[in-house]
Amino acid sequence: MKDIFLLDMDATLLDFPAAEARNFSETLAWLGIGKEEGMYARFHAINDGLWQLLERGGITREALKIERFSRLFAEFGVAADPKAASDFYFSNFAEICIPYAGAREFLARLAARGRNYIVTNGGTAIQRRHIALAGFAPYLTDVFISEELGADKPSYAYARKVAAEIPGFLPARAVYLGDSLTSDMVCAERMGVEFILFSAAPPADYAGACASDFGEALALIDGM
Questions:
Q1: Which of 58, 101, 157, 171 could form a disulfide with 151 if both were Cys (CB 3.0 to 4.6 A apart)?
Q2: Considering only CA atoms, which of 218, 177, 172 is closest in space to residue 9?
Q3: Mind listing the pLDDT tens digit for each residue in 170-189?
Q4: 194-198 β-sheet, strand order
Q5: CATH of segment(s) 4-15+97-222
Q6: How far apart are CA 210 and CA 207, in angstroms?
Q7: Which residues of the chain register pLDDT less than 50?
């Protein structure tokens, strides 16, 4: 039976795509920039690529925050300060929290079975604020934010630190739920725990456990 639940937050418990789109629009408005067609799609692609680069150790977190806007503004010929954009975007994001429907109830049901641990690469200020706004805190045993641990998910260092911080950790007792195959699945593998992909549209070549909603996730966990 599983009683240690490792849970990613963005795009797993929180609607990160919706929050990102809203924050991007509000950032451009603050800068006085009109949003061009395709601009958000490019920002999302650039941002996603840089986060994957971070996961591989190819860029620092601080450089990533500015680089995504530098590349975007260069592509669209925008005369704006990437650092100013980054600073506003980061601080504004802390106040934009959009939990998926049923996320808090899902955490409550898991908490009745065992212990919930957040495992996230998100920034400390944003993630701590989002946990408070979403009302998740009462159902969490601990939160492991890469910025606080000094190692980025899914590095071996991050995986080792998380395992070491969980009292009585045994891989056989744990299950990891997350939306990313490059971050969450790899982290689960490095911790030696079973993984459930949280996605309504998994890649065609993915053959592992997959849940499109919290009900399916609970059913899979109960069957492990």
A1: 157
A2: 177
A3: 999 999 999 999 999 999 99
A4: 142-145, 115-120, 4-7, 174-178, 194-198, 209-211
A5: 3.40.50.1000
A6: 8
A7: none
